[in-house]
Amino acid sequence: MNANNISIEPDDDIINIASSANPSYIMPGVSIDMLQKYDVSGPRYTSYPTADRFVEAFTEDAYKLALEQRRVAGAALPLSIYVHIPFCESLCFFCACNKIVTKHHERSAEYLRYLNREIDLHMEHLGTAKGTKKSSANTISQLHLGGGTPTFFSDDELSELMNMLKHNFIFAPNGEYSIEVDPRTVNEQRLKHLAELGFNRLSFGVQDFDPEVQKAVHRIQPAEQVFSLVEAARRLQFKSINVDLIYGLPMQTPESFTRTLKQIVELRPNRIALYGYAHLPERFKPQRRISEYELPAAQDKITMLSNALKAFIEAGYVYVGMDHFALPDDDLAIAKRQGRLHRNFQGYSTQPDCDLISLGVSAIGRVGATYSQNAKTIEEYYDYLNQGRFPVVRGLALSRDDLIRRAVIMAIMCQGALQYESIELAYVIDFKTYFAKELELLKEQQAIGMLELDDSGLQVTDTGWFFVRAVAMLFDKYLQTDRNRARFSKII
Questions:
Q1: Per residue in 52-63, pLDDT tens?
Q2: Which residues lie below 8 Å from residue 410, measured CB to CB, with a gap of 6+?
Q3: What is the Cα gyration radius of the chain?
Q4: Do 429 and 404 form a contact (C-beta atoms < 8 A)?
């Protein structure tokens, strides 16, 4: 599931509601003026430039060239692989993902055949054609199965998919191998099978435990079911368990969501992803089944957010940033402490900044200085592969300025800090001259305590970490001239 959008709307009454949730404890230095000032839309920066900048002029030929360049260079960094499995048995009304709702499980067997064709095409251009010895340059350290519902696949189909990947790629022994799990589609035996296949991380889609909320979004899954599965996953020694939550859903109230928060704290997953629901029925057809009259008011949403932050921090979770929390001994929290966080199209990662091969309908990848996206409909995806072609329909070849700004933005988003010298040495520029306009704009954020500036670099403060997207946005050349930001989520 893709992250939904967090939306905080300014209101004269918010200060009273926020005060009742004790936000000064959760977000030191955050004032109502700051909440109002930064109640704006902006990118999540899973990439820079962002996916809305992709163009159809980037074709299959450009993607082939990027793969060939990786092969010729004998890339030392391992690969990351993402596989998009679009099928779902039932429709969740809040969903904004690329999915196909069907109860016809025979469709997944056909989809697997086409995934195999796409893998074969990659092997031809990465220098390891089918039947030849695997190359160490095609070692992968990170695999993620997303959707849709990856566990729509049967156990045999998941085995077939993993065998296809292991036949062509070398799996690093200490890699992150994760899969998104719909609790309604698995039991302990299925979890055991996932462990045997090599998955070491699970992400459970919970959203909310309240029965009325679950009914309103058409996703019924009792809390007892999730607790049982998490206990089973721990017995099976999965390295990390993530739980997704959404606030702002229909029928939610601060009181009902507080009950869910208490249950999550009791469940104690290694990681928590907390997203705010953005109601955009004009863009996402499933959301048209949600009545706007059942959505919580803006004041209630800010209370839910404040209560969640307080509950998780008091329970000992580390605020990693951008909606993510982790226990102190989790790799994500450790990576943040050690300044080793990275971001890719799945969000924060502990893995090195590496090329991402993405497989399946609508999947977005990154190879070298390029981004690419596959066809968004399954019919078009199949048609390209039937012709023996990569299903790439758009993408982007990054300019030198894009690369410079990407390095700056990712340093801010991941480390919350930037040393000018590192950018100057990597790209042979004078940072203060190149970014004179941006440095001037940063002074305003420095004045309200969001960051610290000196002659050598910048450091985002604890307060500024809650608004880190606002800091990064100042370096986004495209955004500075863009008047249509409504397509992005709110930055808080």
A1: 899 999 999 999
A2: 45, 48, 342, 343, 353
A3: 22
A4: yes
Tens of pLDDT, residue by residue over 412-439, are 998 889 999 999 999 999 999 999 999 9
User: Which is nearest to 458 in space by CA: 473, 467, 445, 477?
Assistant: 445
Give the closest residue to 49 by CA, choosing from 405, 363, 353.
405
Specify the higher pLDDT residue, 430 or 304.
430
pTM of the model: 0.87
DSSP annotation of 74 reads T
Cα 483 to Cα 487: distance, rounded to the nearest angstrom = 11
Quote the CA–CA distance of 199 and 145 in Å, as a whole number.
Answer: 10
C-alpha dihedral, 175 to 181 to 186 to 188, nearest 10°: 40
Element of type H or E holding 20 = helix 14-20
> Tokens representing 282?
């004009």
Evaluate whether 333 touches 276 at the Cβ level (below 8 Å).
no
Cα–Cα dist 465/471, whole Å: 9
Task: Report which residue type is found at 196.
Answer: E
Q: Which amino acid is it at 422?
A: S
For residue 395, give the nearest of 103, 96, 156, 52 by alpha carbon.
Answer: 52
Of 275, 319, 370, 367, the closest CA to residue 44 belongs to 275
What is the domain partition of the chain in residue ranges?
A: 14-44+400-480, 51-357
Q: In which element (H, E) is residue 241 found?
A: strand 240-247
Secondary structure of residue 335 in the 3-state scheme:
helix
Look at residue 180 and give its three-state secondary structure. strand
- What fold characterizes domain 51-357? pyruvate-formate lyase- activating enzyme (3.80.30)
The answer to whether 319 and 313 are in contact (CB under 8 A) is yes
Q: Distance (Å, rounded) from C-alpha 183 to C-alpha 39? A: 34
Compute φ and ψ for 249, nearest 5 degrees.
-80, 160
Q: What's 14-44+400-480's CATH class?
A: mainly alpha
